[in-house]
Amino acid sequence: MTTHRAPRMFGAMNISHATARLGDIASIRQGHPFRGAIVACADGPVRVIQLKNVTAAGVQDADDLLRTRLSHRKTPDWVKDGDVLLAARGSHPAAALLCSPPESTVCSPHLYVIRLKDPATVMPAFLAWQLNQPGAQDYLRRQSAGSRQQSVRKASVEALTIQVPSLLRQMRIVSVARTAQLERFHCEQLMAARHEEVARYAERLLGGFG
């Protein structure tokens, strides 16, 4: 890893930290190699995380993932707690941290599974956060520019430069990011409730003109 002086972040200045190629600090592979469309099976023993489930806020509908059966005799590469999923296709290559995924879960081939070699050096949550920041997102979008299906090559993901501050600083950043995400969630809930309240009020008022 190389050492650089970081720009100002969260009120701190003149802080030096290392950088590393993502491919040097993590293994990166594509999801399960399904042949053709994934066949849904209500009682299937295998759950599948698809592109639509992955957002910067995490894996959506984690308790209601598509179920299927696998025909391969070889044991699949199940996803694990602490893996980071990165969208390999689309104009928004979102990354999501996996937290206690169900047993026997794989992901579609349109996702990269990133597994850190030493989580004591780089926190999975910090990596997921960093992959969703403008710098990494701009890089990934540039790498897929011109591609007909807007796909990011594995080599491009491996070459991505990752900032590696101290674990303490990583924990602080993750904590601030999670607090902001929770605040945003609560604000969105309040806004939705307010819109419903206004709609009901307007409906009552307009009912008087029938």
List the helices and strands and how they pair.
Elements: E1 2-6, E2 15-21, H1 22-25, E3 26-30, E4 46-49, E5 54-55, E6 58-59, E7 66-68, E8 84-87, E9 95-97, E10 105-107, E11 111-116, H2 124-131, H3 134-144, H4 154-158, E12 161-164, H5 167-207
Task: Report what the structure shows.
By secondary structure, the protein is an alpha+beta fold. It has a single domain, classed as Adenine-n6-DNA-methyltransferase TaqI, Chain A, domain 2 (Alpha-Beta Complex), CATH 3.90.220.20. It is 33% helix and 23% strand. It has helices spanning 22-25, 124-131, 134-144, 154-158, 167-207, and strands at 2-6, 15-21, 26-30, 46-49, 54-55, 58-59, 66-68, 84-87, 95-97, 105-107, 111-116, 161-164. The protein has a 4-stranded antiparallel β-sheet. The chain is globular and about 70 Å long.
Question: Domains counted in the coordinates: how many?
Answer: 1
Q: Any idea what the shape is?
A: globular
**β-sheet strand percentage:** 15-25%
Helix content: 25-40%
State the CATH topology. Adenine-n6-DNA-methyltransferase TaqI, Chain A, domain 2
The CATH superfamily name is DNA methylase specificity domains
Q: What low-confidence regions span 5 or more consecutive residues with pLDDT below 50?
A: 5-14
Question: SSE order in H/E notation?
Answer: EEHEEEEEEEEEHHHEH
Give the name of the CATH architecture: Alpha-Beta Complex
| Tally of helical segments | 5
Task: Throw out a few tags for this protein.
Adenine-n6-DNA-methyltransferase TaqI, Chain A, domain 2; globular; 4-stranded antiparallel beta sheet; alpha+beta; 33% helix; 3-stranded antiparallel beta sheet; 5 helices; 23% strand; 210 residues
